[in-house]
Amino acid sequence: MRRTLDTNICSYILRRHPLNMIERFATLDREQLWLSAIVAAELRFGASKLGVPRFQSAVEAWLAGFDVRPWPLNATHHYAQIRASLERSGKPIGGMDLMIAAHVLAEDSVLITNNAREFHRVPGLAVEEWAMD
Question: Has this prediction a pTM greater than 0.90?
């Protein structure tokens, strides 16, 4: 099963190096893991905003270990449907999370996160929540 990590969990792992998540991460099939270009953009923004060269290098090394996939055209259909549905229900989610969710659905993958509150609102999105230590 293909899986991807959201920005929140990537950032948490990069900043805190939690042993339980690193051990769990090591059990996953690296051939089945990928990252959205949206996640890469958010991680690079965070590192740039922080302005710490060591963290910027860590982000680049992290990204180099993944298949970073461009946002596909078919994700636009998922985006439109998800956004319309969530707005009708009065429960919209953040724009970047919406784009990540649409990408995950377009790739028929599971989203790994440690902050599933918004992602659980997305109909049909498979979410695997990893608890913080």
Answer: yes
